[in-house]
Design goal:
By secondary structure, the chain is α+β, with helices and mostly antiparallel strands. The protein has seven helices and seven strands; from the N terminus they run H-E-E-E-H-E-H-E-H-E-E-H-H-H. It has helices at 2-6, 62-71, 84-91, 122-131, 152-174, 183-194, 213-218; strands at residues 16-21, 24-27, 43-45, 77-81, 113-114, 137-140, 144-149.
Length: 219
């Protein structure tokens, strides 16, 4: 959470972060200022909402995280934040189209928009899952953004990218609108991304109940 504030992706106590564990997930507690958040305050819980004894109340949006872990086994970390430009577009009910080739880093031709629903509700969770059906990130209407990843570092980087692309799209709208890449061009980018960067296989272990050091380092 502190990293989200430092990167100007979040303000105050809004937003939440989680990582998958063997028994469920670790998630940030509700209503705690990130500057005051301690590693021992991170909440361990199962995906049905059961919280171990003597812990703080988890984020009010824990259901949204739990449902993503159930439905998308490749996801091991989730970042939800109210970054400024992504939130502007979300409030205007605009998805992020193929304004720049890096939109494909979310695994699709656009960064989709999930329908509005009250925060913390099952309806919001379902809308989020629908938007994520073909993408690794989405905007939440009148709310913010959500990014997923194989680990917390990747989820955070994707959240940064979503905000960057939101700012780019917002800027083009201010000067008459963008000239979008077409489907063939985006398909070519997605193909190129499959072989981009360091492709040597690395072992990524599943974090255990209370020992995910990457998660704690970011908090």
């Amino acid at each position: 959470m502190q990293a989200l504030v430092e990167k100007k992706l979040n303000i105050g106590t809004s937003g939440n972060v989680s990582v998958r564990t063997i028994e469920g997930m670790l998630i940030t507690p509700t209503g705690i200022n990130p500057a005051l958040l301690l590693s021992e305050q991170i909440v361990a819980m199962d995906l049905d909402g059961q919280v171990a004894e003597d812990q703080l109340t988890p984020s009010s949006e824990w259901q949204m995280h739990a449902d993503v872990y159930r439905e998308k086994p490749e996801v091991n970390a989730i970042v939800h934040c109210h970054s400024p430009y992504a939130t502007i577009l979300a409030c205007a009910h605009k998805s992020i189209p193929a304004v720049h080739y890096m939109v494909a880093a979310a695994g699709s031709h656009e960064i989709p928009l999930a329908d509005y629903a009250t925060f913390g509700s099952q309806e919001l969770s379902q809308a989020n899952l629908q938007a994520l059906s073909g993408s690794q990130a989405c905007l939440l209407a009148n709310h913010g953004q959500l990014a997923t990843g194989k680990n917390l570092e990747r989820a955070l980087k994707l959240a940064e990218l979503v905000e960057e692309q939101a700012q780019c799209y917002w800027g083009t709208l201010a000067i008459g609108g963008p000239r979008l890449l077409d489907s063939q061009q985006m398909d070519e980018v997605l193909t190129a991304f499959a072989d981009y960067g360091q492709q040597k296989p690395r072992t990524e272990s599943t974090p255990d109940k209370k020992s995910d050091q990457t998660f704690r380092g970011k908090e």
